[in-house]
Here is the input.
Amino acid sequence: MSDIRPYEFIEKYGLFLGISFVLFTYLGAEEFGYPLAFLQTALLLTWAWAGHVVCHIEGTPIYPINPHVQLHHKHTIEMPRWLNLGSELLVNFFGFTILILFQWLLGLHVLSNYIVLAAAFLYILIHIFDYSILPNKEHTAHHINENCNYGPHFMDVLFGTRCVPEDPYDDFNNKIPHVILSFAAAYYLRENPVTREWIDALLRHTVATDSKGGEIRADR
Here is the structure.
């Protein structure tokens, strides 16, 4: 059950979330308009938590072969630390870009590829660098009990999935540089003619919905 302490939440997560929403919304506003791009940013930050929760549901068909669980958590295959983190990085990236793949397979375009990519970069920077390479009490607790502290920590607060709700909130102010780097990487991919052409090629023959509910044909 959620146990939100509003003042502490704003202190520890407010600036991080504000900057994330402003920058990531900007990435998708050109295609979808600011309101929908804002909602997409909220959806993808929630996806970072929800996708992780699903990964840890035992009994699902994918659980026995889920590389995040079997390699990163259970170490069913022993490998050097650098290789374990490298494989986890790829798994984290795929966990977001699978949304782009689904859009392509279904012939839809309801999410900005660039917000998806920025969210993927942000998740990787936090999970691999801040939580795996550097020590982090909250994430260590998740590896002891995989059914709590899924991250991002502000989502654990909102959805009541912290291991120890009474503990102080993890300070995300020091993760703001990750937001800026993630935005910069996605912005570069959007503005570079070569990468934009390659990424936008995934959108050909799909249909997007603009901020007024009209269709935007992506076949160029």
In short: The chain has a mean pLDDT of 89. The chain has one domain: 6-217. Residues 6-217 form one domain.
